[in-house]
Design brief:
With 639 residues, the protein is an alpha/beta fold. The protein has three domains: 73-233, Substrate Binding Domain Of Dnak, Chain:A, Domain 2; 245-394, Rossmann fold; 411-625, Rossmann fold (3-Layer(aba) Sandwich). 49% of the residues lie in helices and 10% in strands. Helix 15 (339-344) links the parallel strand 7 and strand 8 (349-352). The structure holds FE(4)-NI(1)-S(5) cluster (NFS) and iron/sulfur cluster. Residues 47-50, 52-55, 67-69, 71, 76, 197 line the site of iron/sulfur cluster.
């Protein structure tokens, strides 16, 4: 593979050249070495769930069609898929649990480094959760909020609190279908039970429970992570910042934080601004301390502090390859085990911090919320002290960096659209109803060397905004678009259709709105519910002219996200198919029949332009069903 075929991003291309010269393996090389990848695995036809096996079903129908226990392709593919949902939901939800734990400690005054930043949000959450607020101390309220939220994880019956935010019609449908989540952990455990040897052997029944589990992520674990992070670290507001490897600085100590949980990254922001440590950096010959992020933890501190982003998932090894990173600290999720060997080629210190995620060759500095700030300072000091070990000749920082605006939320975007004094979705709904906006789309998820880096995200976003579809983005997708300049308000003039352009100009927002990390996909669910509640566009999410996509997905977390969107009624297109194509029945269920139950299907399409048009067609279909006006600026095709 030539470097131009690996990534559309110039900075990444440049570093891939250096990696090749220096003999450093990257994910692209390891992917090529892995080819051809296992066909059974790709199609979802292998099973290791018991030791009668491992078993595999022959897709050409010449060899065995059943596992030793008698499991068919249908059973095996569905079981494997919902185990992916369970893992993804567990990752998001455990993150949410940790944020709740931090809130509890902060409320008890047991932490160094955290407080309650958004009191207004704390109070509104307390009201929603039925917790008294009148005349009470905010710490007492926060304690009760944290305890209430904790109980949602282990709850055995009833319904998750935040599921009430969904339109009533949707809630009723979930109850009717038996997919209203009861407790976050309970649904995940039940996936493991149902998929162990000899339990649930009906692929439709398995997928149905998969949806319930995913809903427990989207309207449970992830939403808890987002809401409580806003309380603890502040609700984001529109903010300017910079993105790409060019944000690293030749003359400063460069610290890169990588992973997911804002509990760590937020306090590192504070430590990196510590006067004493900055003085120490200067004594060591650096001009200052420069902090940048990779992956979702980067999005967390970008949204709340405007900290620059060094790159997305496929740039983690490349960041170290610049030779300019003095310390990379990681917590959990999406951290390639390969990082330790790349770091060995440079002076870069790799520091792991979570008891849940250790790396044999990294230094481990365990992070504890109780001692957050002192630990963060210790790590920053390690970086400062490592600056002198940087080898000048090995430093290659690409020039590329791009301006962006981020920090949109379900609360702030539409405060914006409604003008300064009105927090209302009316203008957004009206823009859709009048045909100025066609609809909206969420593009989310990862990078994957199977698809040219960033190309899937950027081309899809461009095609959608060209067709007057407002785009909201999260995770590594947001970082891809940011690097391509799509998160600048000016990009509306360059790329957006006339209707969307008018809206962006009036309100001063970019045509692609960055709403946060992957757990912040919950902000999209809230936004969709608010749009329904505002009125004029039907009474369920499945009636809205909206669609979702994950063009470069790779993580199990993306499977859970995709499922909670579809189960909430949003048509969702994936760049790579789920590993289920070996089962005709499961494929048929997911791509054709789910619409009959939950009101939305999946589609698989690797070409981002074609995928965008699947979304546009879907949006048009929904506009027609709602009998909305024709698009304002669309020429009627000549007969
Ligand atoms: Ni989401 Fe974030 Fe990126 Fe994918 Fe990984 S960082 S939680 S999983 S790779 S978008
Ligand atoms: Fe094979 Fe069935 Fe055991 Fe899976 S559960 S490994 S298909 S015998």
């Amino acid at each position: 593979m030539k470097k131009e075929e690996k990534s559309i991003d110039k900075a990444s291309q440049e570093l891939l050249k250096i990696a090749e010269k220096e003999g450093i393996d990257t994910a692209w090389d390891r992917y090529e070495a892995m080819l051809p990848q296992c066909g059974f695995g790709e199609l979802g036809l292998c099973c290791r769930n018991c030791i009668l096996g491992p078993c595999r079903i022959d897709p050409f129908e010449e060899g065995p069609q059943k596992g030793v226990c008698g499991a068919t392709a249908e059973i095996i593919a569905a079981r494997n898929l919902i185990r992916m949902i369970a893992a993804g939901a567990a990752a998001h939800s455990d993150h949410g649990r940790d944020v709740a734990h931090t809130l509890l400690l902060a409320a008890q005054g047991k932490t160094k480094g955290y407080g309650i930043k958004d009191e207004e949000k704390l109070l509104s959450l307390a009201n929603e959760l039925g917790i008294k607020t009148d005349g009470r101390d905010k710490k007492e309220i926060a304690k009760e909020v944290a305890e209430k939220v904790f109980s949602e994880f282990g709850q055995q019956h009833g319904e998750l609190q935040f599921s009430r935010r969904a339109p009533e019609k949707r809630q009723a449908l979930w109850r009717k279908l038996g997919i209203m989540p009861r407790g976050i952990d309970r649904e995940i455990v039940e996936v493991m039970h149902r998929t162990t040897m000899g339990v649930d052997n009906d692929c439709e029944n398995l997928i149905t429970h998969g949806m319930r589990t995913a809903l427990g992520d989207g309207w449970g674990g992830s939403m808890i992570a987002t809401e409580l992070s806003d309380v603890l670290f502040g609700t984001p507001r529109p903010i300017r910042a910079k993105v790409n490897l060019g944000v690293l600085k030749e003359d400063e100590v460069n610290i890169v934080v990588h992973g997911h949980e804002p509990t760590l990254s937020d306090v590192i922001v504070a430590a990196s601004q510590d006067k004493e440590l900055i003085e120490l950096a200067k004594k060591n010959g650096a001009k200052g301390i420069n902090l940048a992020g990779i992956c979702c933890t980067a999005n967390e501190i970008l949204m709340r502090h405007g900290i620059p982003i060094a790159g997305n998932f496929l740039q983690q090894e490349l960041a170290i390859t610049t030779g300019a990173v003095d310390l990379m600290l990681v917590d959990v999720q999406c951290i390639m085990p390969a990082l330790s060997s790349v770091a060995k080629c440079f002076h870069t210190k790799l520091v792991s911090t979570s008891p849940k995620a250790k790396f044999p060759q990294a230094e481990h500095v365990e992070f504890k919320e109780e001692e957050a700030l002192p630990i963060a300072k210790k790590i920053v000091r390690m970086a400062v002290e490592n600056f002198k070990n940087r080898v000048k000749e090995k430093v290659n920082i690409p020039k590329e960096k791009m301006d962006l605006v981020a920090g949109f939320t379900a609360e702030s975007v539409f405060k914006f659209l409604g003008g300064k004094y009105r927090a209302t979705y009316r203008p957004l709904n009206d823009a859709i109803i009048s045909g100025r906006l066609r609809g909206a789309a969420g593009i989310v998820g990862c990078n994957n060397p199977k698809i040219k880096h960033d190309w899937g995200h950027v081309e899809m976003a461009k095609e959608l905004i060209k067709n007057d579809v407002l785009v909201v983005v999260t995770g590594c997708s947001a970082i891809a678009d940011a690097k391509a300049g799509l998160l600048k308000p000016e990009s509306a003039l360059k790329y957006a259709g006339k209707g969307l352009q008018e809206i962006c100009e009036t309100v001063g927002v970019p045509p692609v709105l960055h709403v946060g990390s992957c757990v912040d996909n919950s902000r999209i669910l809230i936004t969709l519910s608010n749009v329904v509640a505002e009125g004029g566009l039907g009474d369920d999410i499945s009636e809205l002219p909206v669609a979702g996509a994950a063009p470069e997905w790779m993580s199990e977390k993306a499977v859970s996200i995709a499922f909670y969107f579809v189960a909430s009624g949003v048509f969702t297109v994936l760049g790579s198919p789920f590993p289920i194509l070996g089962s005709k029945e499961v494929t048929d269920l997911l791509t054709k029949r789910l619409e009959g139950t939950v009101g939305a299907n999946f589609a698989f399409e690797s070409d981002p332009i074609k995928a965008a048009h699947l979304m546009i067609d879907h949006i048009n279909k929904k506009r027609e069903a709602l009998k909305l006006k024709p698009m304002m600026y669309e020429k009627v095709a000549a007969v």
